[in-house]
Amino acid sequence: MLITAGLTHRQTPVLVVGSVLTVALALLVDWLASPAEALLRPRGL
After folding, report:
1. From its phi and psi, is residue 38 left (phi > 0), alpha (psi between -120 and 50) or beta?
2. Which tens digits make up the pLDDT trace of 1-45?
3. Which of 14, 23, 28, 41 could in theory staple to 6 by disulfide, Cβ–Cβ 3.0 to 4.6 A?
4. So where are the chain's domains?
């Protein structure tokens, strides 16, 4: 929602904040999912 608001109203700071929050969320999910991936991966792969 922040990214689209920044684009439609041409507000660069809002666009940057939305983008940074999106990247932070993606990295957090990747970090939290890595233990599950290690546990669920079949042996030998």
Report:
1. alpha
2. 767 777 788 888 888 888 899 999 999 999 999 998 888 888 886
3. 14
4. 2-37
